[in-house]
Amino acid sequence: MLLIKSFRTCHLCHCFKMIASKNMSVAINEPNVVPEHLNNLAKQLNVKSSVLSKVINNHQEKLQFYTESRWLVLFEYLTQYDFKTSELLEMIDSNPDILGVSRQDLQKCMTAWTNFRFDDKKLRQLIVSQPSCLLLDDKQILSRIPKLLSYVGNKQNRLLELISYSPNILFDNWKYIESKLDYLLLNMELGPIQFVTTSVMSSTLFDLKCRHTFLIKLGMYKPRDPKANPNQITGNPSLKKIIETSDKQFAVKVAGVTAEEFFVFKKIFKKQLDEENEDDSDEPEYYSDDN
């Protein structure tokens, strides 16, 4: 479990007390010239000034609203959990909004995450790759994680993998997430090992149902032997091939039909679902972007 190192004397704490609350609204017009106050901040954060300048230039509109003290709070607190300063800068570049999280909320968030005793290194890797994990409040984490664990056999590493591929499962409406997980387990008869390393949870439920049903009608997706291990690989197309492809790629390379044939089926399938009055109120849109 990631333990906060309270005994560490943190230079950043001292910097936080000493530094003035300057807005990060600098525009670096000359590529090789770094303003003096950025050089000073880079030293205090223990990062390269050139990299810090690049991050600020990448997100000037957002970062101009965050004072230097916000940077210091984030670095001071998270380095106590063994995050590298280079990783923290990478996280800000990926999601500048994490600078808006107060120290109190950071503390609650990290306490909630560590409550589940995930592997230290893997949890850090997840947060570095998906900084949005820090935008959750502790109640969301404590409520959502146990529900998700139950769908992956209570295997913590599996859940971290699933979140890394589809962080939206932490934020989306639970009933919608639950519907997709139930469909994978009950209708497609897949085990957790077969879906945690895919982006299926980021796809729409309609696309999942539509493509699965299409393959069934073509005789290309067959029921699993009831006695077989749900994690055992079958002769059915892999979930990655089914869902991580464009409509055209799926039709031609997976289903072995023309794109036009699949497009026609997709329209008919949507109409059938509408007629059956299925509740898709949680579904933002039926179609993927590559119709």
Q: Helical stretch count?
A: 15
The overall average pLDDT, rounded, is 87
The largest sheet is: none
Count the E strands: 0
* Morphology call: elongated
Q: How far is the N terminus from the C terminus?
A: 45 Å
Order of helices and strands: HHHHHHHHHHHHHHH
Radius of gyration equals 23 Å
Estimate percent helicity: 40-55%
Beta-strand percentage?
under 5%
> Which segments are poorly predicted (pLDDT under 50) over 5 or more consecutive residues?
6-21, 285-291
Q: What can be said about this structure in brief?
A:
With about 290 residues, this protein is mainly α. Helix content is about 55%, strand content about 0%. Helix 1 packs antiparallel against helix 5 and helix 8 (about 120-130) runs parallel beside helix 10.
Q: How is this fold's topology laid out?
A:
Blueprint: H1 11-18, H2 36-45, H3 49-58, H4 60-63, H5 68-78, H6 85-94, H7 103-114, H8 120-129, H9 138-151, H10 156-165, H11 174-187, H12 205-217, H13 239-243, H14 247-255, H15 259-275
Keywords:
mainly alpha; 291 residues; 15 helices
Task: Give a written overview of the molecule.
By secondary structure, the chain is mostly helical. It has a domain of 71 residues. It is 54% helix and 0% strand. It has 15 helices and no strands. Helix 3 runs parallel beside helix 6 and helix 12 packs across helix 15. It is elongated. The C terminus is likely disordered.
